[in-house]
Amino acid sequence: MNTVWILDVIDKISQIGMTLNGITRHAFSQSDMQARAYLKKLIDDIGLEYREDTFGNMFALYKPAGAVGQVIGTGSHIDTVPNGGKYDGVLGVVSSLASIKTIKEKNIPICHPLELIVFQAEESSSFGHATMGSKIMAGKLDNFVQWEQSVDNNGITLVEAMKKAGYNFYDIHKSVVEKDKYKAFVELHIDQSEKMKYENKPVAVVDGIAAPLRVKVIIHGEAAHSGSTAMRYRKDALVIASELVLAVRNLSLAYDERNAIATVGKLDIFPSAMNVVPGTAIMYIDIRGINSKTIDEFFGLIRAESSKIALRYKVSCEIELMSSEKPCMLNNYVSDIIEKSCHELNIPYMHTISGAGHDTMNMAEITECGMIFVKNDSGVSHHQNEEILKEDIEQGASLLYQTLKTLAK
Ligand SMILES: [Zn+2]
Q1: pLDDT class for 17, splitting at 50, 70, 90?
Q2: Distance of CA 124 from the midpoint of ligand 1 (Å)
Q3: The CATH number of the domain where 90 resides is what?
Q4: pLDDT digits (tens, 9 = 90+) for 119-146
Q5: What average pLDDT score do residues 160-184 get?
Q6: Long-range contacts for 44-47 (Cβ within 8 Å, ≥24 apart)?
Q7: Carries keyword Hydrolase (predicted)?
Q8: 92 CA to centre of ligand 1 in angstroms
Q9: Which residue range is the domain that position 370 belongs to?
Q10: CATH number of the domain within which 293 lies
């Protein structure tokens, strides 16, 4: 694999949208259009068949004579969060393109066409909705009305932003992909945690992508005077909520091995005054995991714990399920091929899960998917300090190349 080429292309893309504090390249913005034009030129130079769909997902097809089967897709995204790093998404796009380029240059015989996919609008930071490009491809258009109404920080609607970039929002349904088009899809991505850095493994096979289950808990205590109410008579909603926060933490620690985790990220108390014992507490719990059964079991324990605590304090407590998304398991033959390729290339690897969402989640609705993570040397992502070692890029890209070769055989 030509790592020098990969690094050079990543570098050039990172210059587009560069600010003092990182890279800002929102979907359909001017910098996004510039980066896309640069990529399109590369694709043309390599001699791949270029096309775009109505939402602006980009495709580069390599279909030599003899490659007549279902398509093997590979890719990621190039849009960023505000002040993002240079590898999130871009590493996957460039590694995918480099892999196809090498297979073409070496004239490696393949039976399945290979296609680079550059998903549009993966990040939710501009219009509040994530992985839109892949959702459209997978036919997940349930949020059409919310998308139509979504507005960015400058008050520009998605519909207007798309129009300015030359796309018609009302045509997006035309980009739904036929169900049997792809045989498989593989995405390579930078690890967005510090896990691989601690384990010191250059690559990881991703076993699943976690999805959130969101719960709202309302604790009905009793507001009272902070000076004249004796401790033994109090039903302090915040104290009760605090017990539940610790219980959620302890359950998370117990579920660590089973890849489920929960966070109380928001807690409101009422009336929220210095001289009043809190009467009501509303807390929001985000539970994530890669296995629906484990998440449900975890939620059941949180529910039981809430009731127990409420009973002990003689208060009532309401538990409301706000939303529940389906996690994406990646235990299939694609993951097996990734793992086998690690052995073939003698690359040390680990298994991991992704706490963050990716386009792969949606592609998994239409084909078998696999994901490769590459070690993040800084341990941070969605940040300008995001960093990867050159040798890790080399290993990651070689692994993707080997995987695609096997899949397309
Ligand atoms: Zn990403």
Answers
A1: very high
A2: 11
A3: 3.40.630.10
A4: 999 998 889 889 999 999 999 999 999 9
A5: 97
A6: 46/97, 46/100, 46/101, 46/104, 47/104
A7: yes
A8: 9
A9: 3-209+327-408
A10: 3.30.70.360
Residue 88 labeled ligand binder: yes
Task: State the distance from the centre of ligand 1 to the C-alpha of 375, rounded, in angstroms.
Answer: 14
Q: Is the peptide bond before 271 cis (omega within 30 degrees of 0)?
A: yes
What amino acid is encoded at 39 in this protein?
L
Q: What is the pLDDT of residue 16?
A: 97
**What was the pLDDT predicted at 257?**
86
Exposure on the CB side of residue 90, measured as CA atoms within 13 A: 32
- Give the model confidence (pLDDT) of 199-211 as tens digits: 999 999 999 999 8
Q: What token pair was written down for 137? A: 């491809």
- Report the separation in Å between the CA atom of 388 and the middle of ligand 1, taken as the mean of its atom positions: 14
The total of structural domains in the chain comes to 2
Residue 382 banded pLDDT, cuts 50, 70, 90: confident
Would you say 112 is a known binding-site residue?
no
Statement to judge: residues 256 and 390 lie in one domain: no
Radius of gyration of the chain measured on its C-alpha atoms: 24
Contact predicate 377/392, CB 8 Å: yes
Residues 277 and 303 in one domain: yes
Q: Distance from the CA of 231 to the center of ligand 1, in angstroms?
A: 50
Same structural domain for residues 187 and 222?
Answer: no
